[in-house]
Design goal:
Helices cover 34% and strands 21% of the residues. The chain is α/β, with parallel strands linked by helices and 256 residues long. It has two domains: 195 residues, Spore Coat Polysaccharide Biosynthesis Protein SpsA, Chain A, CATH 3.90.550; 48 residues. α2 links the parallel β2 and β3. The mean pLDDT is 90.
Length: 256
């Protein structure tokens, strides 16, 4: 592996648990990248649905993989970080995939201008396989994240200089907390690429645990921004709750 400024080593970490339906397309989107200085780490949580058999088909393309029980998605991500050697890190969940084989080439062939975090746009996949374009909000500092994770986690590359471990006590919002913490570092320097990095598939853990997600979101907000900021943002939180409930209502009406 070459590890220099012109061709830095990129670590991609995929965590998966019983993801046999989509894990292969995720793996292929990494190993087929035209950029060759990549290490690929797969952390499986002890799948029993055939996921492991699929992973084994690509062991010669993987730098490291393991299958064992974990304490959740962020514990699995931390396991990946511990064995990684890269200068840049991306976390691509099973079911998501890079939008084309040239994504890494497009990102790292340009002038990074001493950036320590690189992010881009996303194409969101619904359950019918249809996609729509999602433009990432401009990320400047911690204030850019007060209203949530407005950048897709899978469409971020973190430099080792600012990367830290995820809070594995959280189930859903540790990636948001993780990003807030990095924006507060003195060497935080974001770079926005104006093209999509990944296809992001809806229907993950947060979508299926909305009530828990809201409570966890509140706890992280209070921890990172304080009570006064929370009170100030109550109208926004109420607006978002109304939107969620209306969407659920309209979805039920369409089914009926």
């Amino acid at each position: 592996m070459i590890n220099n400024k012109k061709c830095p080593l990129i670590t991609v970490i995929t965590v998966v648990f019983n993801g046999a339906k989509f894990i292969e397309e995720t793996i292929l989107s990494v190993i087929n990248q035209t950029y060759k200085n990549v290490e690929y780490i797969v952390i499986d949580g002890g799948s029993s649905d055939g996921t492991i058999d699929i992973i084994k088909n690509y062991t010669d393309k993987l730098t490291f993989w393991i299958s064992e029980p974990d304490k959740g998605i962020y514990d699995a991500m931390n396991k990946g970080i511990k064995v990684a050697n890269g200068e840049w890190f991306n976390f691509l969940n099973a079911g998501d995939r890079f939008i084309e084989n040239e994504v890494f080439e497009k990102i790292f062939s340009s002038d990074l201008d001493s950036a320590t975090l690189i992010y881009g746009d996303t194409r969101v996949l619904n359950q019918d396989g249809q996609s729509y374009y999602h433009k990432a909000n401009t990320l400047k500092n911690e204030n850019s994240l007060k209203r949530g994770m407005k950048v897709c986690h899978q469409a971020i590359f973190y430099n080792r200089e600012i990367l830290n471990f995820y809070d594995s006590s959280l189930r859903i919002n540790a990636d948001w907390k993780h990003l807030i913490e990095m924006t507060r570092k003195p060497n935080f320097k974001p770079l926005k690429c104006n093209f999509p990095f990944v296809y992001y598939r809806l229907g993950g853990l947060s979508a299926n645990n909305t009530r828990y997600s809201r409570q966890e979101y509140k706890n992280v907000f209070l921890e990172k921004y304080g009570v006064l900021n929370y009170i100030y943002h109550i109208p926004f939180f109420m607006h978002m709750a109304i939107r969620r409930n209306l969407k659920k209502l309209f979805k039920k009406l369409r089914i009926i």
